[in-house]
């Protein structure tokens, strides 16, 4: 022990030693040394409860109990334990927080969102980008319900909107526990949704949702904020009184027990509506940088005699792709570099088809047909353009089928130049500068990296500014 901290005990706010804090224990008055069995929070909670000395830690003990239940349900559904990331998100959910989950594909964001929707005590709303994902989400939720043993959860009613009047009628009458819809449905039927009391709203793949300012405004109305409160949060040049009022609004909202969870793998906000999340819910939406991926990245250099002949270059890339698909077999996605364009997607499709592979491209099938062909293993590979808006890039959640991705050409982020009187210039917005610095980090020397990190930390505060 080195020192004591006055008012430092997390349970009674009394005096506590640094040693007890480092072990995750309350002070000796709350939990005498002879009663310490383990520093595990569950054990500490149990002893404090038995001794009738559980005070400020009560809320965290309740959360720990709920997290234990979350783990149990998660295991029943998937026969595996949740990851440390998912447990961290669960703790925030049970603490009643609204928050953003920004993490790479495959880290279990959607799975977490669906399970918490089942666990929420009242009605939940799930918003996804497309009708295909509405259907996919409904199938998953019903599968989850079939695996759950708890009777109080098994009887949950899942309602989706696919276009029928009966579905709309059930929605109007509130005969559901979880409603799944697209952002387009929300936009068209907001008057219908706003009369329903949702305790949890989960927006999956929030990027497309954020592009429509009206959608974001409607989302905050659903969460119980007034138009005046939304206008105040968006107000430029706020005065001290405005910030005081926003603080009061946040505190008032906490009592409404409404939560928002949003998820994304490639979050790139380009709207001033991000101020609503910061000023009204207390969390920030910032650009995502991928650092955690259970994926092997590799490349094959291609020898070329003439790099200027676009068709010969692409043909050489296709010859390599043919060898890769032959060895890797089914479960692949092939992405044509955006610079080649859509016509080369057709060339790639015809080439591999003529070589005997079962192929489908995003140009010859809609999203539902693409998903069905992949899911039912009717094709070996699907081909699309290497662009974030491509249906093969977003929302394909079938890890049991997909095993690899091949890029024909180098996948890249493009930083557009703008023309001015002196020639061409690059945008100097904080977002662009932040992105460029991250992109060139691997090329920098150690001392330069330290300087770059300093610049990144500075720019982080201003990512929502346009100029």
Determine the structural class based on helices, strands and strand pairing.
alpha/beta
Shape: globular
Let me know the largest β-sheet.
6 strands, parallel
**Fraction of residues in helix:** 40-55%
Q: Write out the strand line-up for the largest beta sheet, numbering strands in chain order.
A: 3-8-7-4-6-5
What's the number of domains?
Answer: 4
- State the fourth-level CATH superfamily of the largest domain: P-loop containing nucleotide triphosphate hydrolases
- Number of helical stretches of at least 4 residues: 20
Number of separate strands: 14
Percent of sequence in beta strands: 5-15%
CATH fold node name of the largest domain: Rossmann fold
Low-pLDDT runs of 5+ residues are none
Q: Over the alpha carbons, how many angstroms does the gyration radius reach?
A: 26 Å
Subcellular location: Cytoplasm
Main location: cytoplasm
GO biological process, one term: DNA topological change
Domain Helicase ATP-binding: 90-285
What does this protein structure show overall?
With 467 residues, the chain is α/β, with parallel strands linked by helices. It has 4 domains: 4-56, no CATH class; 81-281, P-loop containing nucleotide triphosphate hydrolases (Rossmann fold, 3-Layer(aba) Sandwich), CATH 3.40.50; 310-408, 3-Layer(aba) Sandwich (Rossmann fold), CATH 3.40.50.300; 417-460, no CATH class. Helices cover 45% and strands 13% of the residues. It has helices at 18-22, 41-50, 58-78, 84-94, 109-119, 131-147, 151-154, 165-173, 183-188, 190-193, 207-210, 213-222, 227-234, 240-254, 274-281, 310-328, 342-354, 367-375, 430-440, 446-460; strands at residues 4-5, 16-17, 99-102, 123-128, 158-160, 178-182, 198-203, 259-264, 332-337, 359-361, 381-386, 404-408, 417-420, 423-426. A 6-stranded parallel β-sheet has the order 3-8-7-4-6-5, sandwiched between helices. A 4-stranded parallel β-sheet has the order 10-11-9-12, sandwiched between helices. α3 crosses α4 and α19 runs antiparallel to α20 (446-460). The longest helix is centred in the first third of the chain and has 21 residues, at 58-78. The relative contact order is 0.07. Its main location: cytoplasm. This is Reverse gyrase. One of its GO terms (biological process) is DNA topological change. Residues 90-285 form the Helicase ATP-binding domain. It is found in: Cytoplasm.
């Amino acid at each position: 022990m080195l020192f004591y901290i006055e008012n430092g005990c997390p349970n009674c706010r009394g005096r506590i030693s640094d040693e007890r804090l480092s072990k995750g224990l309350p002070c000796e008055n709350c939990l005498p040394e002879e009663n310490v069995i383990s520093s595990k929070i569950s054990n500490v909670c149990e002893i404090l409860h038995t001794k009738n000395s559980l005070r400020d830690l009560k809320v965290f003990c309740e959360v720990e109990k709920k997290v234990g239940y979350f783990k149990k349900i998660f295991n029943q559904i998937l026969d595996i334990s949740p990851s440390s990331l998912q447990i961290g998100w669960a703790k925030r959910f049970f603490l009643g927080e609204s928050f953003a989950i920004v993490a790479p594909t495959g880290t279990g964001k959607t799975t977490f969102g669906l399970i918490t929707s089942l666990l929420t005590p009242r009605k939940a709303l799930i918003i996804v980008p497309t009708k295909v994902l509405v259907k996919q989400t409904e199938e998953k939720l019903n599968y989850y319900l079939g695996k759950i043993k708890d009777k109080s959860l098994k009887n949950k009613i899942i309602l989706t909107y696919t276009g029928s009047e009966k579905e709309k009628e059930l929605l109007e009458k509130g005969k559901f526990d979880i409603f799944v819809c697209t952002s387009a449905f929300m936009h068209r039927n907001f008057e219908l949704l706003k009369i329903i009391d949702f305790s949890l709203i989960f927006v999956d793949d929030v990027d497309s949702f954020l592009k429509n300012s009206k959608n974001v405004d409607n989302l905050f109305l659903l969460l119980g904020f007034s138009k005046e409160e939304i206008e105040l949060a968006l107000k430029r040049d706020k005065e001290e009184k405005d910030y005081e009022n926003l603080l009061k609004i946040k505190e008032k909202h906490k009592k409404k027990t409404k939560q928002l969870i949003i998820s994304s793998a490639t979050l790139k906000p380009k709207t001033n509506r991000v101020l609503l999340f910061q000023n009204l819910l207390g969390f920030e939406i910032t650009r995502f940088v991928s650092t955690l991926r259970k994926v092997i990245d590799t490349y094959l250099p291609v020898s070329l005699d003439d790099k200027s002949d676009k068709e010969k270059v692409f043909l050489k890339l296709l010859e390599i792709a043919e060898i890769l698909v032959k060895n890797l077999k089914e479960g692949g996605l092939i992405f044509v570099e955006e610079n080649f364009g859509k016509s080369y997607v057709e060339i790639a499709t015809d080439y591999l088809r003529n070589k005997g592979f079962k192929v489908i491209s995003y140009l010859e099938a809609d999203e539902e047909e693409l998903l069905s062909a992949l899911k039912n293993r009717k094709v070996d590979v699907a081909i699309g353009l290497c662009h974030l808006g491509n249906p093969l890039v977003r929302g394909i959640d079938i890890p049991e089928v997909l095993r690899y991705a091949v890029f024909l050409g180098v996948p890249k982020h493009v930083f557009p130049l703008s023309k001015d009187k002196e020639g061409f210039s690059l945008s100097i917005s904080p977002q662009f500068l932040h992105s460029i610095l991250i992109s060139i980090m691997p090329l920098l020397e150690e001392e330069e990296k330290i300087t770059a990190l300093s610049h990144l930390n500075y720019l982080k505060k201003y990512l929502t500014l346009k100029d």
